[in-house]
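quick one: D-serine bound model?
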Amino acid sequence: MWKNGFERVEVLMERLSFQSYHQGLIEALNESDAEIYELIKAEYERLQNTIQLLAAESRCSRAVLAALGSVLQNKTSEGFAGARLHGGSGVIDEIERLAVDRAKEAFGARYANVQPHSGTTANQIAINTLLEPGERILSMGLQHGGHYSHGSADSLAGRFFDVEQYYVDPKSFVLDYESIRDKALKVRPKLIICGGSAYTRTISFAKFREIADEAGAFLLADISHISALVIAGLHPSPLDYAHITTTSTYKPGGPRGGLILMGRDCEQEVTVHGKSGSMWRHIERTTFPCIQGTPYLNHIAAKAVFFKEVLCEQYRARQLGVVENARRLAGNLVDMGYDVLTGGTDNHMILINTANSREGLTGLVAQRCLERCGIVVDKCPLAFDEKEPAITGGIRLGTPIVTRNGMGIEEMGRISGLVDEILRTVEIVGESEYRIKGSFEGHIKTQVKDLCSKFPIR
Ligand code: DSN
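yep, here:
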């Protein structure tokens, strides 16, 4: 009797100390560092009071946030579940296994590696798994929608590998698979990379695999931007076409981090760096010890939480909303006379050639004046754009955050109207300078704030 009571007290004490370590985190921060607390609060208020039309961001749930801010952040443990270098890894092994199983279920994958610190790191791991330094990559040009980590001159891949690029068609701005095939057969890369940061149309992973097979190359699909749509079945999956698929995990609405997935090729025997073995084993060796040390275990737990969230119908429905909102926004802007690349979008993203939409309007000026009035977008280099990368001739818009906040077709009407009003009214002074009247800025900001207040961050 007494023993049971004593045990109950012990359990209660244990729970209390677990909770007291984790509860009231934001208040604890305020007490110990008011300066950072105030800056985080300012960021929250910025997000709440402005319209976020960013294609590369989303917002995670409070459950994901809780996993990130947990005791797991303190753990050091190199290696993979069941094969760690450090003691005390039983619990984190269970967490990692759960994250892996859920990632496989979410993407229909046969193999998942939840350890990469980011999408870029996931790409570095994939590339260094398959290639020796100096070997050739064929990837999409950065300005044509590719990504730095696919081999731009300034990236690690650009430094250590021989990188050739393919481009979008100069008239339609869409991928021309015949010309990619010709280039692949001409340059004979060891690896072809598809997927990118600024491409608004559906990518045919099947065609890319045909090209890779014909050229004798591996295929890497980086689906960071479209992974939410792939999960929701709104974009074809690359899983059984690409040898390796990578994504960041924050873009689809999870914690910051990366993910490596494989489909039917995961058991394929390959010889890399003089060693034979299945491709997934090579990926794990390249993850650790080649490129990373301890993975971020709090992020792995947060990824597990997120991969559970994506399995519910609500997540799928939201992705449908993301695409519908993007189509409506693009359609409205086309109707208003904006040069929307490819005439619209198949995904969450819209690319606008600002210079063709209004004479002298650079991407930088468009980004700056929109942000000053409370609408946040990215300036974006566009294919065949002559402007310097810091200036650019275009902007990239995206609908994940506004949709996450609950906005729909009606709000897209208001937002496109506001974007148009700002871009029509701004006085262009140069490639990076503009003037806007204080009264106009105030008038737009009030409308933006009013709209945002109806969609509180939850
Ligand atoms: N930050 C992402 C983007 O802007 O597309 C790429 O890493």
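Residues 313-335 form the longest helix (23 residues).
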